Amino acid sequence: MGRKRLWGIHSALISAIAAMAAALSPLPVGAEPGGIPLPTLAPSKTRSSILRSAENLLGTPYRFGGETQKGLDCSGFVFLVFEEATGHSIPRTVAEQGNWVMLIPKRELKPGDLVFFDLDPRPLGDKNGVSGALPVSAIAAADHVGIYSGDGYFLHAASAGLKTGVIRNSLSEPAWARRFLFAGRVVSASALSGFALDWGVSASFDAEPAASLADLPGQAFRGAGMRLAATFPLGTNFSIGLEGRVEWDRLLNIMRLPVELLVGQTSGVAIFAGPALTLGSPRLLAIETGSTDRSYEAIGGWIASAGIRWSPILIRSGASGAGFFAELRFDHYLPAPGQPVDLASDRGAAFSIAIGLRYRSVHY
């Protein structure tokens, strides 16, 4: 049986992934699944700037909806502090900030992290803010936020009580201990914060087109692979790193071991390219070419393997995330000398599409 060729399977797979993305409630704008919202190479300096800005606002009166020095509400206080200290505009409301932060255990709070409360507390189980284990109801219940300043204290804009406006309180005070819900990280804990390991498995298919969608069931399975990437953040939802892959190519009867530079969005579009080691002699059988066997030479160099990846879904759970990806790959092969020209077969050997599952774990 000849090999069925079509781009249709590519668009069909992409459409299926996009549909799943729409069905799985995307994260709020600005949130990076499993990552630090504001990664920085100088976290201590950034945290110090946050505390200075927060302390400079002590005594500012409370004003519902306020986000200036004339008056602040709790989330407006956090919004203004981070805008002044980091130059970034973060989400504005308590609900948006609660969904935006990376959940951390209460015991791991560092100055500059955020603390969230329920001013009308209801039983929600353990309130230690364990990363990845907090019920959705606890996040939804948050209606007050403050900035942790160290030694068990936090700064916030209080609307009621003996003192109002921007004040300092202790998390150990009974009133606040009873109302505490969870803690969230906004700034990296260290220069290595945001370092992530990304695992993946995939199945690959021929990327050459065929005559009609009727050939979809006959599309040739190309092979399978595994990947492991180590990345560092360059900004919100953008990173750079190295990726190693092990791929079995059934079509050419080889194993392929690329080591690639990976640059792009953590959730979105990324590109990769690098050298590769090929185990075996790439060869298309006559049944695939429609004429005679066709041999190839695997080309070395820095761009032996390259491609573009789309990862539209990354479901967040604390410092980890899992999702789907699709990619278009190019592997650099040249026909062995003395063979007739066959551009279709050469494209089929070099290009493939793949879909797979990924799991990402972040060190914060």
Q: What attributes characterize this protein structure?
A:
364 residues; Porin; alpha+beta; endopeptidase fold (from Nostoc punctiforme); 2 domains; 20 strands; eight-stranded antiparallel β-barrel
Q: Can you offer a commentary on this structure?
A:
The protein has 364 residues and is α+β, with helices and mostly antiparallel strands. The protein has two domains: 8-26 and 194-363, Porin, CATH 2.40.160; 43-185, endopeptidase domain like (from Nostoc punctiforme) (endopeptidase fold (from Nostoc punctiforme)). The chain is 20% helix and 40% strand. It has eight helices and 20 strands. The chain has an eight-stranded antiparallel β-barrel with strand order 9-10-11-12-13-17-18-20. Strands 3-8-4-5-6-7 form a six-stranded antiparallel beta sheet. Helix 2 (43-56) packs across helix 3 (74-86). The protein is elongated. The chain starts with 7 loop residues before the first helix and ends with a strand.
Quick description:
This protein is α+β, with helices and mostly antiparallel strands and 364 residues long. It is 20% helix and 40% strand.
Secondary structure: elements and pairs:
Blueprint: H1 8-23, H2 43-56, E1 67-68, E2 71-72, H3 74-86, H4 94-100, E3 102-104, E4 114-117, H5 136-141, E5 144-150, E6 153-158, E7 165-170, H6 174-179, E8 180-185, E9 195-206, E10 221-235, E11 238-249, E12 254-265, E13 268-274, E14 276-279, E15 283-284, H7 286-289, E16 294-298, E17 305-317, E18 320-331, E19 333-335, H8 343-350, E20 351-363
